[in-house]
Fold:
Amino acid sequence: MDLRFLGGAGEVGRSAILVDESLLLDFGMKTETPPQFPVGGFRGEEAVDPDAVVVSHGHLDHVGAIPALLSGDSRPPIHWTPPTRDLTLRLGEDTLKLHGGTYDCPFTETELRRVTQVSETHGYRESFEAAGYAVTFFDAGHIPGSAHVLVDDGETRLLYSGDFHTSNQRLVAGTTARPEADVVICESTYSDVSHDPRGDVEERFAESVKTTIWEGGTVVVPAFAIGRTQEMLMVCEAHDIPCYVDGMGVEITEQFRRHGGFVRDADALKRASAHARIVDGRDGQRKRIAEQNVAIITTSGMLSGGPAMTYIPEIRRRPVNKIAMTGYQVEGTPGRNLLETGSAEIDGRVMPVSAQVEQYDFSAHADREGLCEFLTDYRDTKVLVNHGDRCEAFAEELAAEGFDAAAPSLGATWSVGD
Structure:
């Protein structure tokens, strides 16, 4: 079995792995300026033309370029879980809105519509055939519909971990799946981090938000639309924190409610959705909400756009107010700059922020302990480390512990198995 790493090797973003030049695992984009896509990709003589596509989950770095595979005469079937299909279509609409008609967008509206024509959905532990391989999804515990992907050619069993978490979140339960495999491609996003217990993080967050509200302040909670918004809604409902929800997360929450079998507690998500008040953004509504003593859960998670950038200017001057960051802030983003400098770039102007700024680790990825726990069952298995900023370092650390581990480079081909 030959594996060609078209993206996600030594980096976070544009995940794409081609198996035997036939089966494509993920096809994402990297949200830089301009966006980056898998090497070779979809332009020129070396454009990827797989017989079938299998997708691990619906985050932009794994699905963002999927519709581009359907240009020309290419119509490979795309296999995924139902939530992943719906998320891909929604993210595709957003990409067209932001970049459509430019070189920064790898597909057109026509190609996005074709996605529904070739879509084939599957549940967990239901084996199916794709490009001649037997493929099975296992719950990865990352977001609703996320999957470990097991690929079996009859001689070699490849396990592609996708993104995963081994601890429970309110939205989804941690993964317990450990299917037998001869080769494992393992993510490594937080390979040098230890998460605090989720319950402790949640309690600190809830206490801080309640204190600010009691003191007469407003709390803006920037959150990624997919996964994080729903997690924060469920935390607020569980701790009786009054809240609004704004941005794309509103629509994604409804999508997840339609796929109740892929969340940990469908009734809890329903209660959380009913607990929050929805913002429609009309007639100066956001400015009025920014004066209330509430939590406002809103995109974007790194302050790179979205409704969050309407709320921040409104609350930034009052020290009693608070901005509670709920996810990792990539270097160079407005969210990272706010944490490091106490200022935020708003409409092209850098403005000082007097409101309190806090950061909470609600990550949906396994930390170092979780990664090692997962890999314990694969100590006698070839491990290829990807999806991280320190893939090579983590592979070396695993090798020092007795694993047969390596970190492929971008564009490299690895032959594995028999």
Notes: The radius of gyration is 21 Å.
